[in-house]
Write a structure and sequence with these properties.
By secondary structure, this protein is an alpha+beta fold. Helices cover 32% and strands 30% of the residues.
């Protein structure tokens, strides 16, 4: 026997994912049979009889059988709780609908979603939304299956062009895909369903394929085992006036009962408590959009419920709740290191709204070689600000703040700004990393430019024949750099004799900050006298001070092979002298 598969909707901010969920929950679907669309805490259930009324004609067309009890949609579209980890090794979602604007193709948030789907191996279908905005599109029926072959050639060609652009983008990310009615192997190919969330085109196909793919491929994951102890994922912690703190939980395994003892993760470790009451939404209040709840004695997977229990507010959003009797599950909780951590390494401070988003962010930051020193969930505190200051003082580049779905209070923002601590705040992990990389690139470039101005480079230069423009005070002569590079401030030596210091470099009447290998220019040499200290065609070398040698070591890979060899010779010579 199957339970309802848990489905979440993902997609770019303007792709239509909210409309997809709204239309699934209401409008023409809810008119079919009031009461069969059940509002859970944090989820909406569509029962089997509603699915059959919607999709039976299509099921017969494609020779599908539907035996699931229904579908459970997580209500928050694109909820970052998608990656709130069940057993902290898989996602809460059994299936995902990735809603993409068919006219724009995959966007930044879609790319990020794909990387997370791939990371946690979550199956998905792609809903290519806004097909009604393609010029000339015409549809008389809600079923997209009936209309695709009835479009004009121009419209049909444009639809195909847009869909195959998405197919190509998916291929670049390691996924094979095709339009749903052309997929030959649903285990190996992603089904793309064109449609319109606003007009409700294609929603019947989406519901049908979600149902069929769930029962065909999820197997043991959604099979109900009466012997299994209860488990659920916490979406968020809240409070009801007169009742107290509550946890919104999606129960995905077993039966949860009042007076059951449950265990969950907190920042302090594993906490055990006893369920005081379980709250469900009243059917009528859900329809009227009022927050009115009723007490129930138990809930079965898969469903959403509010748990009232002592210490429940200490539970981490995105973590899991298990039966305290399930010793193996409790043991696994203890074995898994919590991602809220403090490390001695130099690195960033990371703050997110849920455990799932924290784990996803820390994984992707680590994958991009961004060190993390502190990681936590919840709102930013004054204690956090003090710790961030310490991290920034240790390392100006690594000691930055990453905020994901966390607000930054004005007073904290002012403190961070005064300390010149970089803050990267975004609701797209992909963008957070991009913004940090851009900032780091610019900072490194500024530092490098500053460093270059302070470095005396290894250099050999030759005095050009017939290019003595002034003999002294200062001597001005034409030179050619034959190795390395020359900058003003360089001390010139001829064999062991000091000649003077380069005051300026000019070419064609303009000052030059650096004279590169092979280039010619006029230089002024302080304290040098022609014929007394040097003559035409003499070769000078530049004395490189120890302070410059240390800085050159910092940019060693930016030096030419010739410059690296010259630097090595200078170091060896210094060692012998010492």
């Amino acid at each position: 026997m199957f339970r309802q598969p848990i489905i979440t909707i993902m997609g770019h901010i303007d792709s239509g994912k909210t409309t997809f969920l709204d239309k699934i929950k209401g409008t023409s679907i809810v008119k079919l049979e009031a009461g069969k669309i059940t509002q859970h805490i944090g989820a909406t259930e569509i029962s089997l009889d509603v699915i059959l009324k919607l999709c039976l004609h299509l099921a017969k067309k494609y020779n599908f059988e539907i035996s699931l009890p229904g579908l459970l949609f997580i209500d928050t579209p694109g909820h970052n709780a998608f990656d709130n980890l069940r057993e902290r090794g898989g996602s809460l979602a059994d299936l995902v609908v990735l809603v993409v604007d068919v006219n724009k193709g995959l966007q930044a948030q879609d790319i990020e979603t794909l990387s997370i789907l791939k990371m946690y191996k979550v199956p998905f279908i792609l809903f290519a939304n806004k097909i009604d905005l393609i010029s000339g599109y015409n549809q008389e029926d809600l079923d997209i299956s009936k209309s695709l072959d009835k479009q004009s050639k121009n419209t049909s060609d444009k639809i195909e062009e847009n869909i195959y652009k998405i197919v190509g983008q998916l291929y670049d990310k390691g996924f094979s895909a095709d339009r749903f009615d052309r997929v030959t192997d649903f285990k190996k190919q992603i089904a793309i369903i064109p449609g319109s969330c606003e007009k409700e085109y294609g929603l019947t196909e989406a519901i049908l394929f979600l149902s069929v793919l769930s029962q065909k491929f999820l197997g043991p994951r959604i099979t109900i085992d009466p012997l299994q102890k209860s488990q659920g994922t916490v979406l968020e912690i809240g409070e009801i006036k007169g009742i107290g703190k509550t946890a919104d939980v999606i129960v995905y395994q077993g039966v949860l009962r009042v007076k059951d003892r449950i265990s969950f993760m907190s920042k302090e470790g594993i906490i055990e408590t006893k369920i005081k009451s379980l709250l469900k939404l009243n059917v009528m209040s859900a329809i009227n959009k009022k927050k009115d709840y009723k007490n129930v004695d138990f809930v079965s997977a898969a469903s959403g419920v509010k748990i009232v229990a002592p210490d429940i507010d200490r539970c981490l959003p995105g973590s899991i709740i298990v039966s305290s009797e399930d010793l193996e599950a409790v043991s696994r909780l203890k074995e898994k290191p919590l991602s809220c951590f403090v490390s001695d390494i130099e690195g960033a401070f990371v703050k997110t709204d849920t455990l799932g988003s924290l784990e996803a962010l820390t994984k992707l930051l680590s994958k991009n070689n961004i060190c993390i020193s502190r990681a936590d969930i919840g709102p930013l505190t004054q204690k956090d600000i003090l710790e961030i200051k310490v991290l920034h003082e240790r390392d100006k580049k690594k000691g930055v703040l990453f905020l994901f779905n966390v607000n930054l209070q004005k007073e904290f923002a002012e403190q961070l700004d005064n300390e010149k601590i970089p803050v990267f705040k975004n609701n797209i992990i992909y963008k957070l990393i991009e913004e940090y990389d851009d900032w780091l690139f610019k900072k490194n470039r500024v530092e490098k430019e500053k460093l270059l101005k302070e470095i005396i480079f290894p250099c050999e230069l030759k005095v050009l024949k017939n290019h003595i423009f002034r003999t002294s005070k200062p001597a001005i002569v034409g030179v050619k750099v034959i190795a390395g590079r020359l900058i003003p401030g360089s001390k010139l030596v001829n064999k062991e004799d000091e000649i003077g210091v380069v005051e300026a470099i000019q070419a064609e009447g303009k000052s030059i900050p650096i004279l590169e290998r092979g280039a010619e220019a006029a230089i002024s040499i302080k304290n040098a006298v022609y014929l007394k200290d040097f003559k035409e065609e003499d070769v000078f070398t530049v004395y490189v001070p120890n302070s410059s040698i240390e800085k050159l070591d910092q940019i060693i890979y930016d030096l030419t092979e010739e410059e690296q060899t010259m630097l090595q010779k200078i170091k060896l010579k210094r060692i012998k002298i010492e």
